[in-house]
Amino acid sequence: MTSTTEEKILETALKIFAEKGYVAATTKTISTEAGFSEMTLFRKFGNKESLFEAVLVKYQEKIVKDFGPIMADEDGKTPRDHLKFLINSLVDLMEENFEYVNIIIYERKRVSDSITQTFVAHLGEYLEEHFPREKINHKVLAFNILSFIYFVIFNKKFGSNSFDFEVTVEEFINYNARCLQK
User: Can you list the pairs that 140-147 forms with residues at least 24 positions away whose Cβ atoms lie under 8 Å?
Assistant: First the structure.
C-alpha cells in the first residue's frame, strides 16, 4: 500500500471521526469514502482503534510542526502586537485543524489528557517567558486563550451570527493586552 493510500484513509478518518464521533464512525464508511475496500483499511491499520490512534498522532504532529513558527521569538514588537500576532496565528492554526481539535474535545474519554495538557503547558511557558507578570497564572491564561479561540471558531462554523468574529477577536486581544501590561 502506498503512502497516498494511507494519507487518504487518514484524511477521511479525521473527517468522519470529527463528524460522527468514534462510536458512530465505521470502518466501512471510512474506507468507502476514502475510495478503498475495508480490507485495505484493515491491512494498513488493523482495526478502528488503531486507525483512530494513527489519526491522533498524525494530526498532533502536524499541529506541533505548525505551532513552532508561531512560537518564534517576536522581539521588537510591542507586547500588544506580539499578543495580537500570537492569538491571530493560533486562530488560524485552530481553524485549519478544527476537525482534529473537535475530536480532542468531544472524544476526551478516548484521547490522552496529555495532548491537551502538553499544548496548554507549552503555550503557558511561552506566555510566561514573553509576558512575565507575578500575579498571572500563565497556564490558566493559555487555557483561556485556547478556549476562547475554540468558542469563536465553533460559533463561526456552526453558531449564530450574534457577534462579529473579527471584532470579538480584536476585543479579546485588547483586553488581554491591558491585563498583561506592566
Answer: 141/176, 145/87, 145/90, 145/176, 146/90, 146/94, 146/119, 146/120
Mean pLDDT of the chain: 89
Identity of the residue numbered 70: I
Q: What is the pTM of this model?
A: 0.85
Say which amino acid occupies 139: K
Residue boundaries of the structural domains of the chain: 1-53, 71-180
10 close to 45: Cβ distance less than 8 angstroms: no
DSSP-assigned letter for residue 161 = -
- The Cα–Cα gap between 22 and 55 comes to 12
Write down the architecture of domain 1-53 according to CATH.
Orthogonal Bundle (1.10)
Q: Which residues, in sequence order, are CB contacts of 64 under 8 Å at separation 6+?
A: none
